[in-house]
């Protein structure tokens, strides 16, 4: 569940309706910048698995330091941009591995490929004359080579990546839109049922639930859709 709120009150007001067995929670740039690491610790202490989605992208030492800081907050998953390159990702993996050897529980390390809001035209403007599928495949292969646990991509690329990279490499997919929801700023979208049959491991869903007048009802509808009921 993507908690894109900007106050502690709004966040906790929403989370009070949830239990850890219902969903994991994702804290992204808006909430973290508004409320700081305290909100991460609060949600971890309530027993939730927390995905700290800050999409780190910097020189190797700085990025790895940030990933280590995330691990010390007790999060379950953290992400970096694959476009930060091999040396950056390798340094993150090495520093997490040192922590693990020292007995600290470390988060899953996930690489962001091509943002789900982007299409071929956006890539072209960045000087990349390839379609999203091809670019996602290239970045996901690099992430796997560097020892990451998986990637963020759209569910539209999931089937292809499972074939290319195997079952053990995790696919985390935002851009999930049930039939009844609006696309908002997302571009490469899929419904929850389509995403499940494409083999995704974790779906990230925000506004279709958080902006609904009855969020719990929508969550239950999505869970029923996933279970094929
Ligand atoms: O890393 C992410 O979580 C992420 C990557 C990506 O390519 N696209 C993407 O939408 N996200 C995040 O996933 C969430 C999607 O939220 P909704 O569009 O509201 O369902 C947001 O919090 C985004 O920051």
TrEMBL record:
**Which family does the similarity line name?**
Belongs to the OMP decarboxylase family. Type 1 subfamily.
UniProt keywords (A-Z) are: Decarboxylase, Lyase, Pyrimidine biosynthesis
Q: Which SMART domains match?
A: OMPdecase
CDD domains found in the cross-reference section: OMP_decarboxylase_like (cd04725)
The function of this protein is: Catalyzes the decarboxylation of orotidine 5'-monophosphate (OMP) to uridine 5'-monophosphate (UMP).
Question: What are the coiled-coil residue ranges?
Answer: none
Tagged with keyword Transport? no
Q: Which GO terms describe its cellular component?
A: cytosol
Name-wise, this protein is Orotidine 5'-phosphate decarboxylase
């Amino acid at each position: 569940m993507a908690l894109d709120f900007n106050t502690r009150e709004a966040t906790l007001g929403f989370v009070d309706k949830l239990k850890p067995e219902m969903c994991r929670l994702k804290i992204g740039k808006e909430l973290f910048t508004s409320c700081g690491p305290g909100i991460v610790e609060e949600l971890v202490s309530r027993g939730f698995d927390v995905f700290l989605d800050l999409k780190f992208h910097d020189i190797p030492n700085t990025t790895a330091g940030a990933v280590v800081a995330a691990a010390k907050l007790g999060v379950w998953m953290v992400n970096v941009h694959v476009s930060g390159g091999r040396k950056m990702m390798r340094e993150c993996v090495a520093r997490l591995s040192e922590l693990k050897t020292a007995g600290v529980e470390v988060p899953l390390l996930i690489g962001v490929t091509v943002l789900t809001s982007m299409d071929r035209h956006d890539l072209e403007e960045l000087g990349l004359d390839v379609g999203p599928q091809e670019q996602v495949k290239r970045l996901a292969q690099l992430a796997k080579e560097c020892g990451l646990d998986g990637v963020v991509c759209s569910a539209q690329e999931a089937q292809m990546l499972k074939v290319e990279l195997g079952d053990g490499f995790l696919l985390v997919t935002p851009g999930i839109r049930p039939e009844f929801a609006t696309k908002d700023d997302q571009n490469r979208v899929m419904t929850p049922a389509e995403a499940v049959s494409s083999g995704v491991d974790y779906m990230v869903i925000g506004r279709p639930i958080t902006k609904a007048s009855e969020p719990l009802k929508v969550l239950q509808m999505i869970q029923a859709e996933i279970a094929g009921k």
